[in-house]
Amino acid sequence: MFKRKIQLELEEYYKNSTDPKILIVYGARQVGKSYIIRETAKHYYKHYAEIDLKSDFESEKLFANITTTKDFYLLVGSLFGDLNTYDDTIIFLDEIQFYSNLMTLLKPLCAEKKYRFIISGSLLGVTLQHSFIPMGAIKEKRMFPMDFEEFLWANNYSQETIDYLHDCFNNLKPITESVHQYTLRLFQDYLLSGGLPDAVTQYVLNRNVSQMRRVQSEIFTYYKDDCSKHDKDHQLKIRKIYDLLISNMVNKVKRVQFKAIEEKDDSNFAKYEDEFDYLFDSGIALPSRAISNPVFPLTESQSKNLLKVYYNDVGLVTNILYKNRIDAVLNRDNGVNLGSVYETAAAMELIAHGHELYYFDSKKVGEVDFLINNYDGLSVLPIEIKSGKDQNNFRAIPKLVNSEGNYKLPFGYIFGNKNIVKKEDNIVTCPIYLIMFL
Question: 0.85 cut: is pTM over it?
């Protein structure tokens, strides 16, 4: 079992029997929700019951007409026998979004404290936006693909070395060249495999590139198929937008071109808001909204009509672009521009660490890849991602952090491939993999 950061939160939930709330873990399909819930829960409860509601929905539909807790308990008892007490028993309801009637039962199930529950689902992010669950009944936790630190764990990278890198990041100290080269190579491996556990298994454990790409292609298809719950018109638009994301990402201007969706010049975000909301709420795409005035908090000056969107996993991107030609990433064959790949990995990392994504867009100043809120300093932090050899090719960040300029941001980050850790003129330069500590 790959070690995941969510394990600590799950274990705290299992241990805290006084917490009456039901934990809901949601996120995109294939990020590892069911597996990590199942394997951790079995260690903490004498009686563990798992109900795959997707399978039930597609076959017997036993739970379709359950509208009371009494009927629910009777059905669970017939399936699993005597499950014992609240402290000894946990029931895992997987893919609960298939049964809205069970969603409405969560509050009384929580209040009655007959059993403990944990809930998961691949489209719960969408369901939770459209379902009324009274406050106090649930607590939500979003799960993502493996971030780079989790990928390092999967590669048996030592915690001592991770702590060493963290210290170098915090104190701006140089990194030993051999450690840098090895960690950069693992980062390039991460660009290929991404963070979807089944793909990581094929690449890290089995060293099977073709099987890894097969897994990624299947998951990409699953993501598009999941929109089938919508009416036909919405399905087609969601699929078209999802397919277009890669062309936006590799363009010099990476923002979404709304008119390309239906070849209509008057198109804008408002016309496709439902479709984009689905992509974001389901977790299969990551939004980054344009900011023209980088003032904390960033949400107050965001533009909905200027939008960059990333796939939720960098492995899907390198699969689409390069298939089995992993040398395009590992050896940079033929001068391949990996800008969109590096940006996707950075977006994954920042989102997984709780940041909302924005980018700076100004004709006078230029563009910065990412802006995030810096809550410690109540300020804005600009971030530039460099995938090539020239890490000094940037013009916007110096204008944002200039103490005599218009914006006067405290400092900014440049992340690239070189083994440089320094701060100069309010700009911090670091190797790309150190973004895991931001």
Answer: yes
